[in-house]
């Protein structure tokens, strides 16, 4: 059983090593004086526990916390009416099995107090819940040990499980008189991450904020702290057996403890956390922001930045280009949780900061040597009200914050083009892709869904059959009225882009940044690309300056290709956007087109794009809700 003496001997060894020698596993408040508002006093070996308030506790105390899944069965909870009776004593048999066994674990480690959310937060008091729910960084960050009922779906499952100790040993094989041991560390870790508790969104920050966690898995104990991840099968650690980026708490700790390369802080810690968090389940979609508040507040303090709705004021514009990873599964919640510019407005896995994705595949050595300036990020829009960002109540369960952004707006329209179109006719006699008041537009942009083919307009035929993944990836064509070649780039939508209603709606592209990316297997096969990235917007109501985000777009070309030239050559000559008056702005990053009207024999250098800063540039100012 995972309640055996052998199991607890291993756990005590991990705890002793951690508390005596791990400098990065210290409590959040290192003077040892932090006391949660309420704790359960469990020091007596009797058959009951007592609720105590902070002013009724000693100054220096050691307490444990419990991570558990409520599940579909509501456990015993603290209410205003039960406060006095809980202070008198709660008989252990009245507690769910998971709570009873967590008390046993704490007592075996000599810990006198334990914090359990549903017994230490007044569940029928919205005021108490709001006050306590934003203290998770302190409550879990100062815990001596976080006990995790990892294998249980609800309070009936308990912590302890029967098991066969022999099943923990690696399989031994003898080949040519040599002994080999089969290890399944990575496969086991994937299964562990999918355990019932570890798929809950609230639990992610509990795991990351606690100095140390003792998991009670289905067949063994698992230890997590900032310097050691171990199990009964791998008692000396599995850190070397699993790729380092898989350990989220190590990434967070390195951000909190050390200085990273400028510009990579959010990539290093926040990006993988959001990827994992957005993949977890929440019973109430309204908890989306508050269930991550503890981690966000820790990172906010390190960055010395403002925070709102899942984004930080540091490099704010760069963070706007998150994207949905599983479009067909992603939805928006029934009730408002966050503005459309925030990833928290979606239910489903999302990825943020895509301009840093290439570092995920390059290894630690490349990441250490990489210089942030090599990404050469050019921000092409500006959040005008950044000084107000995060000044509202960040403890609120929902966010209605609006962003006022100045930048370029390029009108587009969805046009369903059949595979039997005369592509050369489209190239040389393009139809209007957007219904403007003016019938003499100098250029137009056509988005279209490509089910299983990408098209090469200059060849007039299909090429490179590709698998359609059923997601939101659309191929987009950009052409000028002069008959220049079309540029192919991609869109990701948060809507059902196949619906007829979607196809009728007008859209606008808002370029956000241009960056240099790397692609290749190794340093000898690596190519550099220049990509243009931005938001896809739609009206939020009638004509006016208020929009909402409905997707992102990306145009990528090798450094010697002129796709960005074609885009800007078209985009900069569009007529005014209905209901939005241009505003003259200073210190604007502008695309500098080296040859606006090159001849047929123009070279790549003649069609290049560079970026510079200029005053007196007309920009559109829109509000994104």
From TrEMBL:
Residues 63-206 form the Heterokaryon incompatibility domain. It comes from the Eukaryota. InterPro entries: HET. PANTHER family: DOMAIN PROTEIN, PUTATIVE-RELATED, TOL. This is Heterokaryon incompatibility protein-domain-containing protein. It comes from Cercophora samala.
């Amino acid at each position: 059983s995972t309640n055996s003496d052998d199991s607890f001997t291993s756990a005590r060894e991990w705890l002793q090593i951690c508390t005596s020698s791990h400098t990065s596993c210290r409590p959040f408040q290192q003077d040892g004086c932090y006391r949660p508002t309420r704790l359960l006093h469990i020091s007596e070996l009797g058959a009951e526990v007592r609720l105590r308030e902070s002013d009724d506790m000693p100054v220096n105390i050691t307490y444990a916390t419990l991570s558990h899944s409520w599940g579909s069965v509501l456990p015993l909870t603290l209410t205003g009416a039960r406060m006095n009776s809980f202070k008198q004593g709660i008989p252990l048999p009245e507690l769910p099995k998971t709570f009873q066994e967590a008390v046993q674990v704490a007592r075996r480690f000599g810990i006198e107090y334990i914090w359990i959310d549903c017994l230490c937060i007044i569940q029928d008091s919205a005021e108490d819940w709001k006050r306590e729910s934003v203290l998770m960084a302190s409550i879990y960050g100062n815990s001596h040990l976080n006990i995790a009922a990892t294998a249980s779906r609800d309070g009936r499952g308990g912590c302890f499980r029967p098991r066969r100790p022999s099943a923990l040993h690696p399989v031994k094989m003898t080949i040519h008189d040599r002994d080999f041991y089969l290890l399944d560390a990575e496969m086991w870790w994937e299964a562990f991450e999918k355990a019932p508790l570890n798929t809950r969104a609230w639990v992610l920050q509990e795991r990351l904020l606690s100095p140390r966690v003792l998991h009670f898995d289905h067949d063994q104990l698992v230890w997590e702290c900032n310097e050691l991840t171990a199990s009964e099968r791998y008692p000396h650690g599995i850190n070397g057996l699993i790729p380092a980026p898989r350990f989220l708490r190590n990434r967070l700790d390195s951000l909190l403890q050390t200085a990273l390369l400028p510009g990579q802080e959010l990539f290093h810690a926040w990006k993988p956390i959001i990827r994992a968090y957005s993949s977890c389940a929440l019973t109430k979609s309204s908890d989306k922001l508050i269930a991550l508040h503890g981690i966000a507040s820790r990172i906010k303090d390190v960055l010395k930045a403002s925070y709102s709705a899942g984004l930080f004021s540091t490099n704010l514009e760069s963070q706007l280009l998150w994207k949905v990873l599983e479009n067909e599964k992603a939805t928006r919640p029934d009730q408002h949780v966050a503005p459309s510019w925030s990833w928290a407005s979606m239910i489903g896995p999302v990825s943020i900061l895509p301009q840093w994705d290439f570092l995920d595949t390059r290894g630690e050595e490349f990441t250490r040597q990489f210089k942030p300036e090599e990404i050469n990020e050019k921000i092409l829009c500006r959040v005008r009200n950044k000084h107000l960002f995060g000044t509202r109540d960040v403890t609120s369960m929902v966010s209605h914050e609006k962003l006022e952004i100045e930048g370029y707006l390029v009108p587009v329209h969805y046009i369903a083009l059949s595979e039997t179109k005369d592509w050369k006719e489209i190239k040389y006699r393009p139809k209007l892709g957007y219904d403007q008041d003016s019938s003499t537009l100098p250029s137009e942009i056509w988005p279209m869904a490509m089910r299983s083919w990408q098209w090469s307009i200059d060849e007039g035929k299909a090429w490179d059959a590709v698998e359609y993944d059923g997601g939101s990836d659309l191929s987009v064509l950009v052409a000028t009225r002069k008959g220049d070649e079309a540029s192919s780039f991609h869109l990701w939508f948060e809507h059902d882009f196949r619906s007829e209603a979607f196809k009728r709606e007008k859209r606008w592209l808002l370029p956000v940044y241009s960056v240099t990316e790397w692609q290749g297997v190794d340093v000898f096969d690596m190519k550099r690309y220049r990509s243009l990235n931005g938001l896809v917007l739609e009206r939020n109501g009638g004509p006016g300056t208020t929009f909402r985000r409905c997707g992102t777009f990306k145009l990528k070309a090798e450094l010697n290709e002129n796709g960005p030239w074609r885009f800007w050559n078209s985009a900069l000559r569009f007529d005014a956007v209905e209901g939005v008056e241009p505003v003259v702005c200073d210190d604007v990053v502008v695309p500098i087109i080296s040859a606006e009207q090159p001849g047929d024999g123009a070279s790549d250098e003649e069609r290049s794009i560079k970026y510079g800063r200029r005053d007196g540039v007309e920009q559109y100012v829109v509000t994104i809700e």
